[in-house]
Amino acid sequence: MTVSRTTSGAGEGAGERGGEGAADDADGGSGTAWTDAWEVTLASAPARRRGRVLQSALREAVRSGRLAAGTRLPSSRELAADLGVSRGLVTDAYEQLTAEGYLRSGQGSGTWVGDAVRAAARGTRDRAPHPPGARADFVPGTPDLSLFPRAAWGATHRAVLARLPHRALGYPDPRGLPQLRTALAALLTRRRGVAADPERLLVCSGVAQAMTLLGFALRGRGVRTVGLEDPGSPENMAVLGAAGLRTVPLPLDAEGLVPGAAARAGVGAVVTTPAHQFPSGIAYSAARRTELLDWARSVDGFVLEDDYDGDFRYDRAPVGALQGLDPERVAYMGSVSKSMAPGLRIGWLLAPRELTEELVERKRTMDLGNPVLEQALLADFVEQGGYDRHLRRCRLAYQRRRDTLIAALDEHFPGTEVSGIAAGLHIIAVLPGRYGPEARFLERAAAAGVALQALAYHGTARPDDGRVRLVMGYAHQSPSDITRGVRMLADAVARG
Question: PROSITE patterns under this entry (predicted)?
């Protein structure tokens, strides 16, 4: 299957084009101008998956802003004709997205992108998914910022600033401060099992910049389409799209990417989270890790490994990074966003040799390098053991919070299944069907001030078993807040 995203500049004025089309035809317009803004090809998708692919493409077009709030969509008849599918398939997609709040419709007035999407899209762009004023917040993605080692960080800051030579405050090496690259290479080799050469390590402003750099480098090599895990992080689609790449969803099962998925999709690279897949929580099996590397070698492709929370495993030692098995096929990305604080904006990229020089030049032209003082600070913090001490403290706190959340769900929502390995900053909680339907469950939670995120937000799968599937973050809350939040949620559901 192929999902084609917006061509350059097509996203601008999408709402205006939709309005013009509607004016030309009372049933929604010809659709030609509208489909200039996005395109989805369903012919190669299995018949049973075409509805889900269409829904996913529409949903992501709305989330990313390519279909702006107020845009009028073509009639179901015309879109079906454009895509070569049945009208019923399009009607089902419109109805599903209307129920989810992405679209709105009225008797005889057509189908439009909903106004409520403006706030959701703005929140995604601002990377502020935690709603202000929530009485309980289970939205995943943030560590406990109160655990940030302020005293140790402040002492290190004073020591580093006192000894940093004046010349070090000039324009930095775009790869990063040599001291930090050396310290990170040693740390990642020791903790994550990577093959880390400091000369091939770039210091970046987080994984988002690392992936942007890789996107430009891959496009320069002729790659046009990248595979994304389904479910996965919605941000990856936007980041790679900004680098001019199309993305396609690749299905997962309990062991990792479904065998042959990347080959069937014809992609040139795959973004993956093999140590602790986000959001499903699985760890890739040895067989799937091997298969993914075999695919990359066979097509001269690359695996983009996002090791977003690899240090947090609670039942055993963490699984080593995929990059250590083939450094020339795997680009390894990580950051301190989950281990310390996202506001530090420090990450790293270990690149295959053939991409390194282009990535360094891209980094230089993009921002002339990361701030020197913060790099020197982190280097000293790592070298003096402060980073390891901080991770130990966080790991103990987060393990307790995970246990607290599971116990609270077991008490207040009997029959809840928690999937995935004991790791990271979130769980997948699947509540029995008696608490559904999911849309109503989420409405009750929101009305009670409990912020939640459905698993459906992250992928195309829409199981029809009636159960409620949630991605629940726990790291940023105290155990007492977790217990209180689950109780509030149970009370809201009981009140109906």
Answer: HTH_GNTR (PS50949)
